[in-house]
Amino acid sequence: MALAQAKADALAARIAGLSLPQGGWLGAARADALARLSTMGLPGKRDEYWRYTDPSSLNQPEAPHAALFDAGDEAPIFDAIARLKIVFTDGVFDAGASDPLTLAGVEIIRLADAGATDIHWAREIYGVLEARGQTPVQRPFAALNTAFATDGVLVRVTGRAALPISLIYNHASESSDAMLHHCIKVEAGAELTVLENGPGAARLTKVLEVDLAEGATFHHIRAQGRDHQRRACTHVFARLARNALFKSFTLTANGRLTRNDAVIELLGDDAAAHVAGAAVGDGDFHHDDTVFITHAGQRCESRQVFKKVLMNGAVGVFQGKILVKQGAQKTDGYQISQSLLLDGDSQFLAKPELEIYADDVKCSHGSTSGAIDDVALFYLQSRGVPKRAAQSLLVLAFLAEAIAEVADEAIAEDIRSRLEGWLARHEH
Amino acid sequence: MLEIKNLHVKLQEEDKIILRGVDLSIKAGEVHAIMGPNGSGKSTLSYVLAGRDGYEVTDGSATLEGAELLEMEPEERAAAGLFLAFQYPVEIPGVGNMTFLRTAVNAQRKARGEEELSAGDFLKVVRAKAKTLKIDADMLKRPVNVGFSGGEKKRNEILQMAMLEPKMCILDETDSGLDVDAMKLVAEGVNALRDAGRSFLVITHYQRLLDHIKPDVVHIMAAGRIIRTGGPELALEVEHNGYADLLAEVK
Ligand SMILES: Nc1ncnc2c1ncn2[C@@H]1O[C@H](COP(=O)(O)OP(=O)(O)O)[C@@H](O)[C@H]1O
Ligand SMILES: [Mg+2]
Prior knowledge:
Largest interface: A-B, 24 and 30 residues
Strand order of the largest sheet of chain A: 2-1-5-7-9-11-13-15-17-19
Radius of gyration of chain A: 21 Å
Number of strands of chain A: 19
Radius of gyration of chain B: 18 Å
Number of domains of chain A: 1
Largest sheet of chain B: 6 strands, mixed
Oligomer: heterodimer
Distance between the termini of chain A: 50 Å
Helix content of chain B: 25-40%
Strand order of the largest sheet of chain B: 6-9-10-3-11-12
Bound molecules: adenosine-5'-diphosphate, magnesium ion
Helix content of chain A: 10-25%
Strand content of chain A: 35-45%
Order of helices and strands of chain B: EEEHEEHEEHHHEHEHEHEEHH
Order of helices and strands of chain A: HHHEEEHHHHEEEEEEEEEEEEEEEEHHH
Number of helices of chain B: 10
Number of strands of chain B: 12
């Protein structure tokens, strides 16, 4: 299908300055992705899943400027967690700041080094999960990323990874435009935790493809960078075989624009996928979680738990879908999206969807938007808790169900303390 | 301890007058009871003293040990020594009961310039006090009042009171919804706190709580006023004759 001329022109402008590495299996995968992108074009405001989020700052060829954020003397998140660090600054691998890419039970190769070698396992993932995730909803920025990503890591886990892999995204230039793409294959029965943190660039486009074999376990905990003006457009594509477990949690504080897509396919029986997010935004903050979970196997469980705290005109978006395919009996699907609006200026837009083609399933979804409970606030104050502290306690209580999705208690505590800090710094 | 003078209160949002000149004086160490028909303004009085929004004081004053309560934030009133056991204790999903108690105790200590209790010390005290109220470890871990039975909620109020050691305790229908055994537990909890420096205002519908918590003074409230004040025998009179005679007398 030919694109309208305006869309074709916009796409041509967007990719004019990008280079498409050629050759090898990776070059072929990139060329395929570009072909996909060329039929889709960039998203427009009239596209069904871009009605609530304006894609123009992601479409424009140059990244909009984003001032660097000074975190003062606060230690970076996950600092106290033992992990293997892999650092990218403005999308460029930083060998000096990274640990050697060796970890028992794990193979790690940089995407930038992967094109020349024939990595069979990655060939079956790179751009493959992304391409599967293009139907029924198109995700042009993911195809753009597969075609033009400059770096990332390819990780294959064969045992129980000795440490979490920690991907750190630094932002050093006010006009940087980074495109990173990671592939993770967790083999049968193997286990891996991936931590991600940092803004990455003025504009970060990221794809994470995760393939879980039978009985594999994958934990993903991410803290998106606090830079107020940064923009991020991220995608997680996951495919789960029988008995696999996938858990992903995202903390977002600040950022002018964040669009996080999660596209998850429960292919084998008895698999479980949880995606959760806690977002806090003050003022010029637009945060969009777009989730699509497909149940194809039987007796699979999925949970979506998304909570947003919004103030001073911040905007939260949630578009979450559970698709239960024919034959996916005994599916247990749960979805909740809630916002806490700390003033009348903020806005929460939700589009929860269920589409079910099997008869023996249990699916629930709910979406609410509300203010702080005045009665609970008074109750706390009447016990001597000052108003601000009482409000913070209630905000954290509101976020608790999402944070409860973080299995590791030390990491969950780190996340709670970041949120407490944020609440203490923001008048509400 | 507590001096209420000519207190007039209306709803903020409506032109509805609820309290029409309440006078009440409670000395240190005394236990006063307020009885009265539903809707007479008893809970409103307790809320106004604790500082809940939605009410407008149009006249009068209320002081705690000489300090004007009505000008303070609710948390300042608590730090000054006021405590209200709610008629309907509030559920707070997501906040653990223990966290709630520790936050409250330490906030008050901080407001009074005292050192915060260490986690270990706090735990010891809470466990001991919870045990006497038959509050088990599970209730301490659960979110505040969520899924608690009526009786558990009321016992939890008394636990908070015991932890915060206020000077002026107001109990709003703490007996309602309790069976005899639970009422005894609650009464014992209250009696254990009675001392010369602490006063109580016990709001109740029924005389039976006053069999367990012996009041020094009993007031009858109707239509936003205290219409009679007497000794414990006044409660017995109400128990036998109901409020009708008293109300007729006033009219
Ligand atoms: N927030 C409120 N909104 C509307 N009416 C109220 C409110 N608070 C109290 N009232 C009214 O004031 C009167 C006294 O109520 P309350 O103080 O609860 O009485 P009591 O505790 O003695 O039963 C009742 O008529 C009640 O309906
Ligand atoms: Mg009442």
